[in-house]
Design a protein that fits this description.
The complex is a heterodimer of chains A (340) and B (258). Chain A has a domain of 207 residues: MetI-like (MetI-like fold). Chain A is built from eleven helices and two strands, in the order ααββααααααααα. Chain A is mainly alpha-helical. In chain A, strand 1 and strand 2 form a beta hairpin. Chain B is of the alpha/beta class and 258 residues long. Chain B has a domain of 176 residues: Rossmann fold, CATH 3.40.50. Chain B is 36% helix and 26% strand. Chain B has a six-stranded mixed beta sheet with strand order 6-7-8-3-9-10, sandwiched between helices. In chain B, strands 2-1-4-5 form a four-stranded antiparallel beta sheet, covered by helices on one side. In chain B, helix 3 packs parallel to helix 6 and helix 4 packs across helix 6. The longest helix of chain B has 14 residues. Chain B is globular. Classes of the chains: A mainly alpha (340), B alpha/beta (258). Chains A and B meet through helix 7 and helix 8 of A and helix 2, helix 3 and helix 6 of B. Chain B: GO terms for molecular function: ATP binding; ATP hydrolysis activity; phosphate transmembrane transporter activity. Chain B: This is Phosphate transport system ATP-binding protein. Chain B: Pfam families: ABC_tran. Chain B: Keywords: ATP-binding, Nucleotide-binding, Translocase, Transport.
C-alpha cells in the first residue's frame, strides 16, 4: 500500500469545488455565495415547476387511460356520463361544448369591457377617480368564486328573464338566442357570470400595459393632430396588443377552469341545447366537482378515473389555448413595441 | 404653405412653476430659426407652446398669444388638434409608430386628416419619403416595420411623416441629439432643402449646427435655477455668432458661462 504524504500543497479531492468555482468565475458565472445560493434557488424553482407539471400530466394520463379502456361508449360522441358501475358509458362532448361556449361568451363580454375600463383608468379618468376605480376592480378579483356563485344563483338568474325574453323577441330567429320560458340557469348565464369574474384580471393586466406605453409614441400621434381616441388607436392599443392577449388568456384560463360558480348556477343536463339561453349542459370542471362524491374507484369501477379523463381534456385544452396565444404574439413580434 | 409665426408676451407654466416668461418673437416664413441655450432654459418648452403640445403635459398652461399669420393659436375657438395638424413636429428621439410599417408611418397623418384613395396615398408617401431623402433606402421595404431602420433613418422617417400632411410650420426638438455625425449631416442637409417649403424652428444644443442650418438664431437663458427662462436675443445667425449684442450670448457661444 502506497500512502502518500499529506503535504499542504498536494490537492486533496475536496479541492474540487473551489476548482469548479474558479472555472465558473472565469466563464462569468456566479461565484460568490449569494449568487450561488440564488442560482441554486431559482434553478430549483424552475425544476420544481417542471416536476409538478410532469407529475400532474402523468397522473392524468395514467388514470384517464384506465377509464378510457373500460368505456363502453365513445368518449368523443356519447351524450351521457354514467361512469360508475360495471358498464361505464361516458363522453366528453357535452362538457367540452359547455366549457368552451361559456368561456367564449365570457370573453366576448369581458374583454371589450375590460379594455374600456383599463383605458378609462389609464387615459381618461382624473387621477383620484382612476385610483379608486382601480382599487375597486382589484377588490373584485378577491371575491371567492362561491360568493359569485351564490350571487349568480340568487340574484342574477331571476333578473335575467326579462333580458332573455328581449333576446328571444329580436334575435330568436338565429336559433341560438331562442328562449323557452323557464329559470335561465343556462350557459349564457354562466357566460355572463364568468365575464364578471374574469373582468378584474383582464382589466388590471391591460391597465398596467396601457400605462407603460412610452410617452414618445403617444406624443408622435398627438403631434400629427390625433384626438385622444386616435392616440389610443394609433399608439396605445397597438403597443398594448400582446399585453391584451396575455390578459385575455389569464381570464380565459380562469373561465375554463371555474368550478364553484358554475356548479352553483347551472342547471345541468347531458345534452347540448340548441339555444344558449335555455337551461342545461355542463362544464368539465363543474362535472368533476358535482360528480366526484358519488364517483367510486372500488371494485373495478372507473367513476373517478372517468372524471380524471375529463380533467385531462381540460388540461390539454388550456395548453392549446395558451400555445395559440403565444403564436399570435410571436407572429407579429417585429411589429411589437419591444424593439422601439 | 409656409406661414409666419408671431409670438407676443408668451408665458408658460408647469402647474405653479413658471417655465418661460414673456417671450415675444417673429419667425419669418421659409426660414430656419434655431433656438440655443443651456439645458432647462425653456427652449423646448417654448417650442412645444408653438403647436400647443405644452398643454398635453399635466399642469401645463400658457398665457399670451401665438399668431400663425393672423390667427391666434390660443384663441378661444381654436381646437388644439387642428393646430397640430398644421404645425408638424419632430422629436428628440426618433419615434416612428413601432407597430406600423414604413408606409403606414408616413401615411398615418394623412389617414387622420380624412379619406384618401389608395394610389393618392402612395403618391404622397413616395413624395414625402423623397422629401426626407429616405426613398432610395426604403422603397423596397415599405411594408417592413419602421422600427427596423437605423436611428438616422428612423428620424428621417419621422420627418417624412411630419411633412406628408403639408404642414405650415415644422418644429424640430433637438432632432439630431440621438444620432451619429453622418446621420446628423443628412438631417442638416434635409433642413436646408425643407426650408424652401416650410417654416422651420429647430432646437439644438449643438452651436455649430445652429450656425450651419439656421438663418436666425434665438438665445434663451435663465438667471438662476428655478427662475423662468427668457429670450435673451434673436438675430441673424451670422450676427449672433460673430457679433452678438448681448454679453450673455457671447459668453454662452464662446463657452464662458456658469
Amino acid at each position: 500500500m502506497d500512502i502518500k504524504p499529506t503535504s499542504p500543497t498536494s490537492p486533496p479531492p475536496q479541492d474540487q469545488p473551489p476548482l469548479a468555482v474558479d472555472k465558473a468565475g472565469s466563464t462569468g458565472t456566479a461565484a460568490r455565495p449569494g449568487d450561488r445560493i440564488f442560482l441554486a434557488f431559482s434553478r430549483g424553482s424552475g425544476i420544481a415547476l417542471l416536476v409538478v407539471m410532469a407529475a400532474i400530466a402523468i397522473f392524468l394520463t395514467v388514470r384517464a387511460t384506465r377509464a378510457l379502456t373500460k368505456n363502453e361508449g365513445s368518449f368523443l360522441t356519447t351524450f351521457e356520463w354514467a361512469a360508475n358501475g360495471a358498464h361505464p358509458n361516458f363522453g366528453i362532448a357535452v362538457l367540452l361544448y359547455g366549457t368552451v361556449v361559456s368561456a367564449v361568451i365570457a370573453m366576448v363580454i369581458a374583454v371589450p369591457v375590460a379594455i374600456g375600463i383599463a383605458l378609462f383608468i389609464s387615459h381618461y379618468a382624473p387621477r383620484p377617480l382612476a385610483s379608486t376605480i382601480g382599487y375597486l376592480i382589484d377588490l373584485l378579483a378577491a371575491v371567492p368564486s362561491i360568493v359569485y356563485g351564490l350571487w349568480g344563483a340568487l340574484f342574477l338568474v331571476p333578473h335575467l328573464e326579462g333580458l332573455y325574453k328581449w333576446f328571444d323577441d329580436y334575435l330568436g330567429w338565429t336559433g341560438i338566442f331562442e328562449y323557452n320560458d323557464g329559470t335561465p340557469r343556462s350557459l349564457f348565464t354562466i357566460g355572463i357570470l364568468l365575464a364578471i369574474m374574469i373582468l378584474p384580471t383582464v382589466t388590471s393586466v391591460s391597465r398596467e400595459v396601457f400605462l407603460q406605453v412610452p410617452k414618445m409614441h403617444e406624443e408622435a400621434a398627438l403631434a400629427l393632430g390625433a384626438t385622444r381616441w386616435e392616440v389610443i388607436r394609433m399608439s396605445v392599443l397597438p403597443f398594448g396588443r400582446s399585453g391584451i392577449i396575455s390578459a385575455s388568456m389569464l381570464g380565459l384560463g380562469r373561465a375554463l377552469g371555474e368550478t364553484m360558480a358554475v356548479a352553483t348556477v347551472l342547471s345541468t343536463s347531458f345534452d347540448i341545447q340548441p339555444s344558449l339561453l335555455d337551461s342545461g349542459g355542463g362544464t368539465i370542471a363543474q362535472n368533476i366537482a358535482s360528480g366526484f362524491k358519488e364517483a367510486t374507484d372500488v371494485e373495478g369501477s372507473v367513476g373517478r378515473d372517468a372524471l380524471i379523463a375529463s380533467g385531462l381534456v381540460l388540461f390539454v385544452l388550456t395548453l392549446i389555448v395558451n400555445g395559440a396565444a403565444r403564436m399570435i404574439i410571436a407572429r407579429r413580434k417585429e411589429y411589437s413595441g419591444a424593439n422601439a | 404653405m409656409a406661414k409666419r409665426i408671431d409670438v407676443s408676451g408668451l408665458t408658460a407654466y408647469y402647474g405653479s412653476h413658471m417655465a418661460i416668461e414673456d417671450i415675444s418673437m417673429t419667425v419669418e416664413p421659409r426660414s430656419v430659426t434655431a433656438f440655443i441655450g443651456p439645458s432647462g432654459c425653456g427652449k423646448s418648452t417654448f417650442l412645444r407652446t408653438l403647436n400647443r403640445m405644452h398643454e398635453v403635459t399635466p399642469g401645463g398652461r400658457v398665457e399670451g398669444k401665438v399668431l400663425l399669420d393672423d390667427e391666434n393659436l390660443y384663441g378661444s375657438g381654436v381646437d388644439p388638434v387642428s393646430v397640430r395638424r398644421t404645425i408638424g413636429m419632430v422629436f428628440q428621439r426618433p419615434n416612428p409608430f413601432p407597430t406600423m410599417s414604413i408606409f403606414d408611418n408616413v401615411a398615418a397623418g394623412l389617414r387622420l386628416n380624412g379619406s384618401y384613395r389608395k394610389n393618392e396615398l402612395s403618391d404622397v408617401v413616395e413624395k414625402s419619403l423623397k422629401g426626407a431623402n429616405l426613398w432610395n433606402e426604403v422603397k423596397d421595404r415599405l411594408n417592413k416595420p419602421g422600427s427596423g431602420l437605423s436611428g438616422g433613418q428612423q428620424q428621417r422617417l419621422c420627418i417624412a411623416r411630419a411633412i406628408a400632411v403639408e404642414p405650415q410650420v415644422l418644429l424640430m426638438d433637438e432632432p439630431c441629439s440621438a444620432l451619429d455625425p453622418i446621420s446628423t449631416l443628412a438631417i442638416e442637409d434635409l433642413v436646408g432643402e425643407l426650408k424652401e417649403r416650410f417654416t422651420i424652428v429647430i432646437v439644438t444644443h449643438n452651436m455649430q449646427q445652429a450656425a450651419r442650418v439656421s438663418d436666425r438664431t434665438a438665445f434663451f437663458n435663465l438667471s438662476a435655477v428655478g427662475q423662468p427662462g427668457k429670450l435673451i436675443e434673436l438675430d441673424d445667425t451670422e450676427r449672433i455668432f460673430a457679433n452678438p449684442s448681448v454679453q450673455a450670448t457671447e459668453d454662452y457661444i464662446s463657452g464662458r458661462f456658469g
